[in-house]
Design brief:
Order of helices and strands: HHEEHEHHEHEHEHEEEHEEEHEH
Number of strands: 13
Shape: globular
Strand content: 15-25%
Number of helices: 11
Largest sheet: 9 strands, mixed
Structural class: alpha/beta
Bound molecules: threonylcarbamoyladenylate, magnesium ion
Radius of gyration: 20 Å
Distance between the termini: 49 Å
Length: about 325
């Protein structure tokens, strides 16, 4: 490729987006695999490259609060209030879409998940491309999300372009809510917690009733899986497994020489710090040939701990006996 790449990566990436190509880019949560959300051909390539089933809709990333009204309708003042409080930031709102968003983006749903990411590279990419950008996390479907460009290169070596923004600052994906007449429901937990959102809108429960929005179609029981079994410290391990070939991801436990490796993702039981480091630890352990399986000490299920335990349970789901 030309050295234009090196002189102005964002301008190059923006041109790629306009040409219908795929660009991996940093957000504050995880790296996204982006395409022009208004171009169905470009969006179909996201599903192909990720090997993602087409029933799993994509989040659309916008560059300003004013753009909500360009791609959605029936927006009321509560939605604007939420956007003003949490954007740019890791909150995705599921809202009624208009015709500018093609059906392939939303898997045929009448709603679209929309957010304004809190990352300068992402925002500049959206502005320079002058397109809303549809982007799932830039990993193969069901696998561990990327928090560093190396994680993207490992899983998606054929992506057209990667914008390198270093490590992401939040580390787990955005909180997804649906806003209904009565208030909000949580479709996916993240670092923006129920308690924070409740200061603005009443909470209507985790699982919306049948007459309201369906829960996030992509929230499958098995997800975020490393390529090795993952268990919790309380689980009964299969008899053939030897902890000497295992890594422990500790939370409060101190060094424990039963295991080959002990990883501490936070030094002072800080759940935010734990979340930032979680996916990078799973990527590291995937690549470590001395490790056959992973054991995780559960974290307390309050605040951000809810989102962390949600990711860990799904990561271990397929190994549950
Ligand atoms: O932090 C994030 O949200 C990252 C960054 C890249 O923005 N993106 C992300 O996208 O995590 P993805 O595709 O890995 O997860 C999006 C989730 C899926 O579970 C999907 O089912 C749900 O959002 N979703 C998207 N549109 C929806 C809609 N209209 N209704 C319900 N759920 C929706
Ligand atoms: Mg994902």
């Amino acid at each position: 490729m030309s050295d234009f790449h090196y002189s102005d990566p964002i301008a190059t990436a923006a041109r790629y987006i306009r040409e219908g190509k795929l660009v991996a880019f940093p957000t504050e949560t995880v790296y996204g695999l982006g395409a022009d959300a208004t171009n169905p051909m470009a969006v179909s390539r996201i599903f192909e490259l990720k090997e993602r089933p087409t029933f799993d809709p994509l989040i659309v990333h916008i560059g300003s609060i004013d753009d909500i009204g360009r791609y959605t309708h029936k927006i009321d003042s509560r939605v604007i209030k939420l956007a003003e409080r949490f954007w740019p930031g890791p909150l995705t709102m599921v809202l009624p879409k208009n015709d500018l968003i093609p059906d392939i983006v939303t898997s045929g749903l009448p709603t679209v998940g929309i957010r304004m990411p809190n990352n300068d590279i992402a925002l500049e990419l959206i502005r320079q491309s002058q397109r809303p950008i549809a982007a799932p996390s830039a990993n193969k479907f069901g696998r561990v999300s990327p928090t560093h460009p190396d994680h993207v290169r490992k899983q998606l070596p054929d992506v057209d372009y990667i914008l390198d923004g270093g490590r992401t600052l939040v580390g787990i994906e955005s909180t997804i809510i649906s806003v209904t007449e009565k208030g909000f429901s949580i479709l996916r937990h993240g670092i923006i917690t129920r308690e924070e959102i409740e200061k603005i809108l009443p909470y209507c429960g985790e699982k919306p009733s049948k007459t309201e929005e369906p829960a996030a179609p992509g929230m499958l029981k098995s997800h975020y899986s490393p390529n090795k079994p993952l268990y919790f410290t309380g689980d009964t391990l299969p008899a053939n497994l030897n902890k000497k070939k295992a890594a422990l991801i500790a939370f409060t436990l101190s060094d424990n020489n039963e295991y080959a490796t002990v990883l501490h993702l936070t030094s002072n039981a800080n759940l935010k710090e734990y979340a930032v480091n979680l996916f990078a630890a799973l990527h590291q352990l995937e690549a470590d040939s001395t490790i056959d399986f992973i054991v995780v000490e559960p974290v307390p299920e309050t605040g951000i701990g809810i989102a962390i335990m949600d990711r860990l349970r799904r990561a271990g789901f397929k190994y549950k006996s």
